[in-house]
Every structure is written in structure tokens, then in C-alpha cells.
Amino acid sequence: MCSFMKYINIPDTDLIISHVAASFGPKDGDMDEKESFRLIDTYADKGGTFLDVANVYGRSLPGNLPRNEIWLGRYFKERQNRHKFVLDSKGGALNPWAKHIKRVTPKDLALDLEDSLKNLGTDFLDYYWVHVDDPSEPVGEILEVLNQFCKEGKIRYFGCSNWSSQRMEEANAYAKAHGIKGFTANQVMKNLAHPNLEAIWADGMTYITEDIEAYHIRTQIPVFAYTAAARGYFSVVDQPGYDQDHRYVSNRTLFDNTISRKRAQAVRKLGDEMGWDPTQIAIAYLYHQHYPVVPVIGVTQEQEIETAIKAMEIHLTAEMLQAITVE
């Protein structure tokens, strides 16, 4: 099967992006910097255009440094190709070393944005995400500062990440009432696995809920689905030693349960019948939602890029979707 990158427009923007976004480098691992450069080159060569990063990525490692942004800034300087990408970043996240301090404030967003621009060696970001929410912070103040960033030319468009549907609705209403820009996308965890919610919440992440799904079906605002392949769950859960292998501790903690196992069995059966890789099917599932979904993949090897592109070619029938989403 010959596969080609496909593209999607983020509504209410002039951004046409590859239908898979990618993140490179150490969030909490030890990938080599030059290897990350090589993988970004591969992603670009295959038509990838949307680079996902955040000011907090890498800060959980010793030194509290935004290593992903720093590495990407070095990459742009070395390759001189910033203009070839739609570049995002995120601000307002909790400091991993001081999680008791809330940071979704105009001041903190401004500080994070300035730091991101410096780290990335760029004058502007194509897209900016408010990384988490603080419901006690007036949504109007957040939108006003984001619009100010746009006026200053520091960002072009913006969205939210890990917000509730109620707060997104509130933000939409404020933007409309005041004639300003609002959120045009939402980044939240979504994948084919059945989540162990307590573990996901404890890890500081947010899994998509039924009311958030309903919000996106009604508004057609895109979801940027992080942890799109459930950390490779469907390709490794039936491997010998999975239950004891230390490499899959996070995978097991977040996603391994009776329902996920049933879905993995159905995915494996479908893959054997159709000649598809389990992870291809898992990502293809995201392309078959009733609203636009852009998978966000954390790339550690070339095959992960090719898998996401091949998933764009897979057509899942209603019967197939029903089988792989068994409860």
C-alpha cells in the first residue's frame, strides 16, 4: 500500500497542516539530541509540518530545563528551516518541581511565551496552547492576553489543552460577545484504549469525556489527540513478558485493563484479517471520528511516522469500528 501524507485545515485559521502532528525529544526520557534532529528531518521529508512542543517538556528531568524547546531551537538554527513548519508551544503548565503553584494567569502565560520564543529562536509561534486550566481564573482575562499576543505578532492562533467542555463553552461565549479571537482547537488525550482514569489524572493528564466529545461533534472544532497510540499498547500487550517488562510500566499503568485487552484482541484479529499493523488500526480509529482529529505522536523511531501516515489510508467500516470499541 502506497501511503501519502494528508493535510487538514484548522477552522477559522489559514493553517493547513499535516494530518499528524509530532513531538520529538525528551519529555521524561533520554533520547539523543542529534537523533531527534534526524527524526524531524524524516518527518519533514514525508510531508510532516506540525511540530508540537511545550515549555514544560523536559522540565521533569534534572535541571528543570525546557529541553524540547531548546533542542528544537538548535535544530532550526542548524537547518535554517523554521519557515517549513507550523510551530506550536504551550504555556501555563505546572512546574514539575512546584506543582502546588497554579500558573494559568496572564503573567505566567506571558513569561512562558517569551521563554518559548527565546528557546526556539523564533519571533512568533503559529499556534499557542493554554496547557492546563485553572477554573478559578476568569476566562476573559486568559482570552484577552492571548489576543494581545496575537496583536503583538508573537502568536497567530491559539487553543486550549486539558480544559472541560464547560470552560470551552464559556471561552467561546466570551470571544463572541467581545468580538475577539477564541480557541480554534483543543488538545486532550484520546486513543482507542480504555483509560485507567485515576492513573491518568495522577500523571497530570486529561482523557476526553463524553461531554467533550459532544462539544466537538456539535462545534466541529478539531481535537489534537495526544498519546494517540496509547503508548503503543495495541502492538505490545500480547507480546511475551508484557506483564513484567519494565519498559511497559507506564503503558500498563495507564491503559491495561479488561476492556483494553478485549479491544486489543479485536484489533489483532482485524489486523490479521486485513494485513494491518495494530498501531495503524489504533491511529486509523482516530481518523474515523464524527469531528476532526489530528493525532499527536511522540516520535522515537522512523516507523512511528510511517505508521501514522499508513493509518490515513485505512478505511474502517461501521462493523470494524464496533468490533474494536467493544466494552
Q: Could you tell me the strand content as a percent range?
A: 5-15%
Biggest sheet details: 8 strands, parallel
* Portion in helices: 40-55%
Provide a count of the helices: 13
Unreliable runs: none
Gyration radius, rounded: 19 Å
Could you give the order of the helices and strands?
A: EEEHEHEHEHEHEHHEHHHHEHH
Order of strands, main sheet, comes to 3-10-9-8-7-6-5-4
Give a count of the beta strands, DSSP E runs of length 2 or more. 10
Principal-axis shape: globular
Taking the alpha carbons of the first and last residues, their distance comes to 31 Å
Tell me the structural class: alpha/beta
State mean pLDDT (0 to 100 scale).
94
Task: Walk me through the structure.
Helix content is 42%, strand content 14%. The protein has helices at 33-45, 67-79, 106-120, 139-151, 165-178, 197-202, 210-219, 233-236, 249-255, 258-274, 278-286, 302-311, 318-324, and strands at residues 7-9, 16-18, 21-24, 50-51, 86-91, 125-130, 155-161, 186-189, 223-226, 293-299. The model has no long low-confidence stretch (mean pLDDT 94). The strands form 2 sheets. The chain has an 8-stranded parallel β-sheet with strand order 3-10-9-8-7-6-5-4, with helices on both faces. It has a two-stranded antiparallel ribbon with strand order 1-2. Helix 2 (67-79) runs parallel beside helix 3 and helix 11 packs across helix 12. Helix 4 links the parallel strand 6 (125-130) and strand 7. It has 13 helices and 10 strands. The protein starts with 6 loop residues before the first strand and ends with a helix. The chain is of the alpha/beta class and 327 residues long.
